[in-house]
Amino acid sequence: MTQLLESLFGGLSIGSVLLLSALGLAIVFGLMGVINMAHGELMMLGAYTTFVVQNAFKKTPLEGFYIFFALIAAFIVTALLGLLLERGVIRYLYGRPLETLLATWGVSLILQQFVRSVSWQFIAGLLIFCLLFFGAMGVLSRLANFERIRGWVIGLMLPISAAISLTISHILGQTYKLAVTNPWFGTQGVDVTAPKWLRGGLPIVKEYQLPYTRLFIIVLTVVCVLGIYWFLNKTAWGLRIRAVTQNRNMSACLGIPTATVDALTFAIGSGLAGIAGCAVSLLGSVSPNTGQSYIVDTFMVVVVGGVGKLVGSIVAASAIGVISYVVSSNALGPLVGFSESLKGLFEFFATASMAKVMVFALIVIFLQFRPAGLFPQKGRTVDA
Predict the structure, then answer these.
(1) Number of separate domains in the chain
(2) 222 & 99 share domain
(3) Are residues 94 and 205 in the same domain?
(4) Residues 140 and 272 in one domain
């Protein structure tokens, strides 16, 4: 029984991580119908932001409280990136789910390589390119017939800006020895050390402690869920988001700026991914592939819970987390000892990879009976 209680507490902590990572995706998927394959990379950027903030606060009086500043920084960084992604890519692909999926998948690969390669020389080249290209576009956009020559301007300025930025960044690298400087993060994993007050654990049962980091993640998840619930139900923009979710066309007819609502929603969802990355960084090393470890489980939570349903995501994340942990730890093995076949079955699945296989199989069977998830959309939401 001690092992079973330990597995239940561990499963709830895993479920809280899944819920935190799925919260932003559930909002974006529910409102915009966008399958954001870059959501895991936004989590990864949130984790790296936490690493940077931790290093910035070392040997300062606030070193023990860096995690709170990291949460704010992770939210801001990923929210701004999400806003840029929506304004620059997603808004041109609404109603085209396959193209959106491929585009966001490409963005995820770009972000992974960006983290592996980013250095001072890379940043210098990127800033010069943005200054030249967007500066030229801003100046030329004042021309009366700009829309007629827009395509020609982009086709001409892209290679010119790229060539100039590459040349200048190479010269700067050779002059200031930036070219031989190692990338900021590289391909290896980096470690985020939890503050002293998050180390250790809370005794739950005999010979088992629930780590304070897991408790912190559970509390953080509760705060985020309550914050999103308050925002969606008690604020003007939250009501606009709910209105657009139920009926986009009618909302537009009533004067709600649907394009602004889409941008705000995507920014909030991306910011929540950054907070999830901050929490995930406390559980292990952070690498460019960190997001890929959570993206599949995150989509499972959203699909099983029901698209756009906050309550469904909570129930689905808790259920998937508990089942995965209980099966992988073989906590039910002693309870089914009377049956050798059941005992052998649970021992066969008593690894993390095989437990995930079992969870996948159970989800496939579940979706055969409830394809719309635990809490399916009804009424005007479906009609819209």
Answers:
(1) 2
(2) yes
(3) yes
(4) no
299: Cα separation from own chain's centroid: 11
Could you give the C-alpha distances from 375 to 221, 222, 244, 253, in angstroms and in order?
Answer: 20, 20, 19, 28
Beta bridge partners of 209: 203
Residues 138 and 30 in one domain: no
Do residue 278 and residue 353 come from a single domain?
yes
DSSP-assigned beta bridge partners for residue 310: none
CA-only gyration radius of the chain, Å: 24
pLDDT digits (tens, 9 = 90+) for 179-194: 555 677 777 878 888 8
Backbone angles phi, psi at 201, to 5 degrees: -155, 165
- Burial (CB < 10 A; 0-12, 13-18, 19+), residue 157, is middle
**H/E stretch holding 43:** helix 39-56
Q: What percent of the chain has pLDDT over 70?
A: 84
The answer on 165 and 205 residing in a single domain is: no
Which of 140-149, 201-210, 352-361 has the largest mean confidence? 140-149
Concatenated DSSP letters for 298-325?
HHHHHHHH-TT-HHHHHHHHHHHHHHHH
Dihedrals φ, ψ of 62, to 5°? -100, 15
Domain that holds residue 114: 2-118+183-383
Distance CA 351, CA 347 (A): 8
- Alpha carbon distance 340, 1 (integer Å): 19
Q: Minimal CA–CA distance to 283: which of 23, 69, 77, 16? A: 16
Which residues make Cβ contacts (< 8 Å) with residue 204, sequence separation at least 6? 5, 6, 9, 210
3-state secondary structure 261-291: HHHHHHHHHHHHHHHHHHHHCCCCCECCCCH
Mean pLDDT, range 198-202, rounded to an integer = 80
Backbone angles phi, psi at 192, to 5 degrees: -105, 120
Q: From residue 103, give the alpha-carbon distance in Å to each of 82, 98, 99, 114, 352.
A: 14, 9, 6, 16, 31
Pair 197, 166 in one domain = no
